[in-house]
Amino acid sequence: MTHAIDTIGQLEALFGEAGEASLKKEVPWLHPSYQALIAASPFAVLATTGPGGLDASPRGDPPGFVAVQDEKTLLLPERRGNNRIDSLRNIVADPRVALLFLIPGVGETLRVNGRARITTAPELMARFAMEGRPPQCVIEIRVDSAFFQCARAIQRSKLWAPLPAESRREVPTPGAILSALTDAAFDGEAYDRELPVRQRSTLY
């Protein structure tokens, strides 16, 4: 392991000093510019940690689905899902969380770190109802730091570039994956056939 990097000194020697802009953009509150990014975002990744390890899971709804309560507080509704509740289990054990906000067509992303708690306060449940259905709960996040991430990763990946029809990538379906993982004990074709209706009927 002669090429392993395992000290902070080695890392700093490899990368050099952070630029001034990279340091100035981080603040311990939600600047109005950052609030505008959150209001425009329909998708975020929630990262948590707990006794069972790390977890990163997607969250999405119409733009602004994560509400800015004030410059130090975010509110994230927890919608129906598969009931694994990995993120929520972690939050109960360790309140530290991180959010990565993405905005379609925009290269910059927003990173927010903070501490979370889970609530079922009636006024919040009613506030975040969609199609007449309240969320399962609401995650309240106290912000420790926020900063935007430059667009290089989005630019390199061409994430928002449309794929030409002739170059559509073939990826396995959810049913095919389940069938493969269970040595065909799981009826993957039936799962794929029923999935669209099940998803539409349980979206909220």
Q: Could you list the spans in which at least 5 consecutive residues all have pLDDT below 50?
A: none
Shape, principal axes of CA atoms: globular
Number of helices: 8
- Strand tally is 7
Instruction: Determine the fraction of residues in helical runs and give it as a percent range.
Output: 25-40%
- Residue fraction in strands: 25-35%
How far the N terminus sits from the C terminus, by CA atoms, comes to 50 Å
CATH class of the largest domain: Mainly Beta
The count of domains is: 2
Roughly how many Å is the radius of gyration?
20 Å
Protein name: Pyridoxamine 5'-phosphate oxidase
Domain Pyridoxamine 5'-phosphate oxidase N-terminal: 31-150
Organism: Variovorax paradoxus
InterPro entries: Pyridox_Oxase_FMN-dep, Pyridox_Oxase_N, Split_barrel_FMN-bd
Structure notes:
The protein is an alpha+beta fold. The chain folds into 2 domains: 20-157, Pnp Oxidase, Chain A (Roll); 165-201, no CATH class. It is built from 8 helices and 7 strands, in the order H-H-H-E-E-E-E-H-E-E-H-E-H-H-H. A hairpin with a 6-residue loop joins strand 5 (96-102) and strand 6 (109-119). Helix 7 crosses helix 8. The radius of gyration is 20 Å and the shape is globular. It holds the Pfam family PNPOx_N.
